[in-house]
């Protein structure tokens, strides 16, 4: 992700600290449901997420729907 992506997130995710926390939340998500909770916490729509964070969106698409599968 480059600076252009970070700056285009508008008021939703607008500081380096918030972007870092957001990215960490998405990367640690074990399911699409957990990733959706991160989006809600940061008040970021699915469309904004997919357009501003395409790499993370691809990672989320590869996750199972829910984390009920035991480790």
Gist of the model:
Helix content is 61%, strand content 0%. It has helices at residues 3-7, 16-28, 32-41, 46-52, 54-61.
What does this structure look like?
This protein has 71 residues and is mostly helical. It has helices spanning 3-7, 16-28, 32-41, 46-52, 54-61. Helix 2 packs antiparallel against helix 3 and helix 4 packs across helix 5.
Structure keywords:
single chain, 71 residues, mainly alpha, disordered N terminus
* Number of extended strands: 0
C-alpha Rg (nearest Å): 12 Å
Residues in helix, %: 55-70%
Cα separation of the termini: 30 Å
- Overall spatial form: globular
Proportion of residues in extended strands = under 5%
Please identify the structural class as seen in this structure: mainly alpha
Segments where pLDDT lies below 50 for 5+ residues?
A: 1-7
Order of helices and strands: HHHHH
In DSSP terms (H or I, runs of 4 or more residues), the helix count works out at 5
pLDDT average, as an integer?
A: 84
- Report the major sheet: none
Q: What's the topology here?
A:
Blueprint: H1 3-7, H2 16-28, H3 32-41, H4 46-52, H5 54-61
Helix pairs in contact: 2-3, 4-5
């Amino acid at each position: 992700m480059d600076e252009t992506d970070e700056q285009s997130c508008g008021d939703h995710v607008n500081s380096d600290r918030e972007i870092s926390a957001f990215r960490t939340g998405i990367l640690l998500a074990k399911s699409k449901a957990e990733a959706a909770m991160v989006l809600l916490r940061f008040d970021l729509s699915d469309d904004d997420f997919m357009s501003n964070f395409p790499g993370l969106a691809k990672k989320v698409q590869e996750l199972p729907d829910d984390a009920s599968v035991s480790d």
